[in-house]
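ok trying again, last paste got cut off:
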Amino acid sequence: MKTLYLSDLDGTLLNSSAEISDYSAKIINQFIKDGGCFSYATARSFVTASKVTAKLNVQVPVICYNGGFIIDNPTGDILTSVFFTKDEVNFISSTLNFHNVHPVVFAYVDGVERFSYIMETVTYAMEHFIDSRAGDPRHRVVDDEQELYTGDVFYIDCMGSESSLSPVNSAFNDNGKFNCIFHKDIYSKESWCEIMPANVSKANAAIQLRDKLGCERIVAFGDAINDLPLFSVADEKYAVSNAVTKLKEVATEVIDSNDNDGVARWLSKNLDG
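nice, full thing came through this time. structure:
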């Protein structure tokens, strides 16, 4: 049966320096060359995911923004996308204002992908995010809340302290109309609360991609809580040894860490020849 091998990036395929090692690139590229169907599912945008996966020759579509977009890797064409409704954006805006939280807003503004923020409200965690994307053409600094939510909004990141974001996470999870992921960023160690439309998940996108490619099975690799939905639809699921406990508990097996090429070593061991 044709199988889709689907890996998370940060903390899984990427090492602690947010890079793919030469060894991992060699193993995965050979697997693809031999006919293997390998892709990735990430919370990253296609812009930053493309940079960190430049060593890989992925020839099939990839999943970005935690399932909000499926994008053809060779061409960059958007195959599927999910956006908030205007009413949902208004609810998000009023809720975040009530909690005095000012996010980074991802949207298509005049047909161009942007991430927008108000400079005066930037937190330390947001500074880390902004600095890590120096030179990114998607930067859009705005003056007020009205401008912040301009365009077709699809993803909202709140970055700050756990105490400031915990009530926000509760508000959106209790509402039931959104997919909200609350976690610690593995690089800055600051808390992130990521808000998406309710039907956005790596699981939904993985099923769509599996069917689009004519595959019958999914083998998944991950490390974080946003990989739990992906694991729920995978036929086999492998957590790297640095993964969170919840993911390890539902994994088929725990494999080597991201810093020791866990995904590539599993491919080499289990699919040799």
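cool. Residues 86-197 form a domain with the Hypothetical Protein, Haloacid Dehalogenase-like Hydrolase; Chain: A; domain 2 fold (CATH 3.30.1240.10). The first helix runs from residue 9 to 13.
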